[in-house]
Amino acid sequence: MLKFYFNGSPNPTKVALFLEEAGLAYEPVKVDTRKGEQFAPDYLKVNPNGKVPAIDDNGTIVFDSNAILLYLAEKTGKFLPSHRAELLSWLMFVASGVGPYSGQAVHFKHFAPKDQNHDYAHNRYQYETDRHYRILDGHLKDRRYMVGDDYSIVDMALWGWARMVPFKLGDDAFARYPNVKRLVDEISARPAAARAIALKDKFTFKAEMDDEARANMFKHMTTKVA
Fold it and tell me: Dihedral, CA atoms, 12, 16, 22, 27, nearest 10 degrees?
């Protein structure tokens, strides 16, 4: 059976959405990143990058959420639009832009040490995250889904991060991206999305962002490179 290494963060949740939508049998394997389980030797054999998600599909290992979505779509033939060039363009836009900038926006908004001046970094990542969502909103203005006329892995990839727009950019941020919100609301209303979000609740994850969690989540805070 396919093993799915996950926690409740955006990247694993979008893979959980595909698994639930496709009706694939899988074994969820909890990786508690606040406890540092992503650095366990056995897990690093699965994902040398020490991140979630990853899958082990009967010996075929895939890591990075967008690579997993593409692998599973190609394997099953589901949620894979025929517009291949457009699919790859927007999937990589999410992978290389939306995800990384969103992650940094969250970090500098919520987790960077408050006793240091992070105004430049905070503004940069807020600006770039907003810029990416404005591009997405314009793209979705005259279309229901990201690629072609059908719900696809690109929509799933976007949903994983886009449903957390208020956490990244402020409580009123969705008002700036009505077309993105429309897509997020449509996907979130799907039964598979509810199951994907609820998956984490079947397990116990460390909730406290204490010194141990910060040391495991943000190793740069304890390790100086330059």
Answer: 110
Burial class for 36, CB neighbours closer than 10 Å (0-12, 13-18, 19+):
middle
Q: pLDDT (tens digit, 9 = 90+) per residue, 19-41?
A: 999 999 999 999 999 999 999 99
Structure tokens at 33: 């990143």
Sign, CA dihedral 26-99-37-211, equals negative
* CA dist 142 → 23, 36, 59, 106, 153 (Å): 30, 44, 42, 29, 19
Tell me the one-letter amino acid at 182: R
Cα–Cα dist 170/36, whole Å: 29
- Please give the Cα distance from 88 to 69 (Å, whole number): 12
3-state secondary structure of 60: strand
The verdict on pTM exceeding 0.85 is yes
Phi first, then psi, for residue 218 (nearest 5°) are: -130, 75
Contact status, residue 26 vs residue 5, Cβ threshold 8 Å: no
Task: Name the β-bridge partners of 6.
Answer: 30
